[in-house]
Specification:
The complex is a heterodimer.
Chain A lengths: L1 E9 L2 E9 L2 E6 L5 H11 L10
Antiparallel strand pairs in A: 1-2, 2-3
Chain B lengths: L8 E3 L6 E5 L5 E3 L48 E2 L5 E4 L5 E5 L14 E5 L10 E9 L16 E9 L3 E8 L6 E8 L6 E7 L14 E11 L4 E2 L11 E2 L12 E11 L11 H9 L2 E3 L17 E4 L7 E8 L9 E5 L9 E2 L7 E5 L8 E7 L9 E9 L3
Parallel strand pairs in B: 14-15
Antiparallel strand pairs in B: 1-2, 2-3, 4-5, 5-8, 6-7, 7-16, 8-13, 9-12, 9-16, 10-11, 10-13, 17-24, 18-24, 19-23, 20-24, 21-24, 22-23
The chains are: A alpha+beta, B mainly beta.
Chain lengths: 55, 401
């Protein structure tokens, strides 16, 4: 389960996504081969998850 | 008295196929399988095989590597159990899973198995799915030439044990789970280890990823699947099935068990003996997909173990942003990994200053500087600390398919 997704800003751009995966905070690279990134983007496309803007 | 038998072929009296063919150069061709009660020796040269050593495309088929849980029981919710084995569910809380669950006498030659226990008598909905699955990387399946006229058959073998008997099911699928081969198998007796072998013809159609780091093949074992995801067994079909019609639903019987080990997927139509890799080899194969700083038999957690911590120098003064260092993986990852940090000294996911026990803030992955061979971090140093002191953090890296 993916919750509380938020972009992390670094190097002048969105660099990764901080997200709680089954209750544990993790950092997901913006890599299309990364399975978590794939599932997060699928949930976003389905309207089931929103990625917050970087603070 | 000795004599020389001169002939070209040797053939069974009731067969139409030559068993042994002898040529003029001293070569012998065996028509089919060759079985030896003792050794087969090549006094020079090598033994060459079409399906060679390292023939098992399944990783951790013996269920001995359990980096995430270290043998502990869990109630899986769309997550990995033992290494490389993913449990998928449409309803949560219906199973417990554990390496060597129930502590039954193991199958001969297999010290470990993965066990599931149903926690209720759940009535399946048409759209329900409960399954155990392994995704095999495309680099390791491209040789099968699936989706072409040269597609090779494969044989799936495994050893299984259940409190239920009857017909069970599974599926071989492509990366999109849109082109599948449902299969069934039989467990004839309850609570008895049964060896199963299923041969799957190579599909000449369907979309397959080829030699990439994506999903080459999914192997599914069904634990309960509704009618929407159950298909007729025994043929390739363009559908999104994850089980076979008529398969036993383990989830529908409270307390029912399903244990499995010795999973092997290999080229050809014969199930050869399970390929036994050394423990260290199997661990290395698993670490392409999941690695951790924790000892192999320690489950990741905060405020817990520090053995194996990533330790590095604080390069700047207190309350200052530090970029780096990077941490090198032991094994190159399939793709850039999802990284999770654990503070071994306290709850949370920050690094700890070894001198003051103060915690960093804002510890994050530097994704742009991270890749398949290492990850890099950035954070703000703890207050009351100094450059040159040591920082320490535990981590996991997940590059699963």
């Amino acid at each position: 389960m993916y919750e509380n997704a938020q972009y992390i800003f670094s190097n002048g751009k969105n660099d990764c996504i901080r997200v709680d995966i089954n209750g544990v905070t993790s950092f997901v690279p913006l890599d299309e081969a990364n399975a978590d990134f794939q599932r997060i983007m699928a949930l976003v496309a389905e309207g089931k998850l929103t990625i917050g803007a970087a603070q | 008295m000795t004599a020389t038998l001169q002939t070209t072929n040797i053939q069974n009296a009731t067969s139409s196929t030559t068993n042994l063919a002898l040529d003029t150069s001293g070569n012998v061709t065996v028509g089919s399988s060759l079985t030896a009660a003792n050794n087969i020796t090549a006094t020079s040269g090598t033994v060459v095989m079409a399906s060679s050593f390292l023939r098992n495309k399944i990783i951790n088929g013996g269920m001995q590597i359990d980096q995430r849980n270290a043998g502990a029981s869990l109630t899986p919710n769309n997550q990995y159990t033992v290494d490389r084995w993913y449990f998928g569910n449409s309803q949560s809380g219906k199973f417990t899973a554990q390496q060597n669950a129930g502590s039954v006498t193991t199958a001969a030659g297999f010290p470990n198995y993965l066990g599931f226990t149903s926690t209720s008598s759940y009535t399946l909905l048409s759209g329900d799915q409960f399954y155990l699955r392994q995704a095999i990387e495309g680099f390791n399946t491209a040789d099968l030439a699936w989706g072409t006229s040269s597609a090779k058959s494969v044989t799936l073998s495994f050893v299984v044990y259940s409190s239920l008997s009857g017909t069970f099911g599974g599926v071989i699928a492509n990366s999109a789970v849109g082109y599948v081969y449902p299969f069934t198998y039989t467990i004839p007796s309850t609570n008895t280890w049964t060896t199963v072998s299923v041969t799957i013809p190579g599909p000449t159609a369907g979309t397959w990823v080829g030699a990439t780091n994506g999903v080459g093949i999914y192997v599914y074992f069904n634990l309960g699947t509704g009618t929407s995801f159950s298909g007729t067994p025994g043929s390739w079909q363009a559908a999104g099935y994850t089980s076979a019609t008529g398969a036993t639903s383990v989830v529908s019987t409270n307390g029912a068990t399903f244990y499995i080990t010795g999973v092997q997927l290999e080229v050809g139509s014969v199930a050869t003996p399970f390929e036994r890799r050394q423990y260290g080899q199997e661990l290395l194969l698993c670490q392409r997909y999941y690695e951790k700083s924790f000892d192999v038999n320690t489950a990741p957690a905060s405020a817990s173990a520090s053995a194996g911590a990533f330790e590095f120098a604080q390069q700047v003064g207190a309350s200052t942003t530090q970029y780096g260092p990077s941490c090198k993986y032991s094994v190159a990852k399939r793709a850039a990994a999802t990284v999770t940090f654990y503070n071994w000294n306290a709850a949370g996911n920050q690094a700890v200053n070894i001198s003051t026990a103060g915690n960093t803030t804002g510890l994050t992955l530097r994704s742009s500087q991270s890749g398949t061979t290492s990850y890099s971090i950035t954070f703000t140093t703890p207050s009351g600390t100094s450059a040159g002191q040591g920082l320490s953090v535990m981590w996991t890296a997940d590059a699963e398919l």
